[in-house]
Each structure stands twice: as structure tokens, then as C-alpha cells.
Amino acid sequence: MKRIETIIPNNKLNLVVSAIEDIGVGGITITDSKGRGKGVRPSLRSLRGTSKQQAEYNSLASVMTIVEDDKVDRIIDAIVGVASTGSSGDGMIFVSHIDYTVDIQTKQRKS
Predict the structure, then answer these.
(1) By the 8 A CB rule, do 7 and 60 touch?
(2) Most buried of 61, 87, 99, 100 (most Cβ within 10 A)?
(3) How many CB atoms lie within 10 A of CB 78?
(4) Per-residue pLDDT tens over the stretch 63-93
């Protein structure tokens, strides 16, 4: 099994979640986050609107799911297909190996 974590701009969240669900993945965890990467940070106006300053962080969403190995490439292709604009700041996908999971309710382990 693999853990796929995707960090994307908030405006791509619905597209990415729909793309993952279309492949048949049921379990998805979404976390609001802030961060800095290659993307341009937004400009913010001061309280009176007389000056602008650059935001310290971008508003991002983190989408995480655990899937069987045979779904990984399809999920990555689907995410890239809906989230990529070809610009810096499109986001990142991280894939890591999961040894096993434990269902807390049933105490059942799955490798």
C-alpha cells in the first residue's frame, strides 16, 4: 500500500478530490495548510487600502489517501491532469510506503 499526499492551492481542491474519487478511492483526508514553495505569494492590502504587502504564506490544501499499489499511477496522473497549469506553485505529490494499516473499530490489520 502507498500513502499519497498532495499539497495544492486551495482553488484546486474540489478538482483533485473529484479526480481521486473517480478512480474509486473512498477514504480521503483534507487539511487546510499554509506554506511557502516556488509559487508566488499573494499581495495583501493594508487596513486602509493605501499600501500592499506580500503574504508570508500561501493558503494551501493537503489531500491524503492510502491506496493499493496498483492505483498509484492512475491517481497521480489524475491529480496532475486537473491541477497542473504549468506554472510554479501548482503543488507537490508525495508517495510513501505503508507497511500496514489497523482499523481501530475491528482491530483488523491489512498489509
Answers:
(1) yes
(2) 61
(3) 20
(4) 999 999 999 999 999 999 999 988 888 899 9
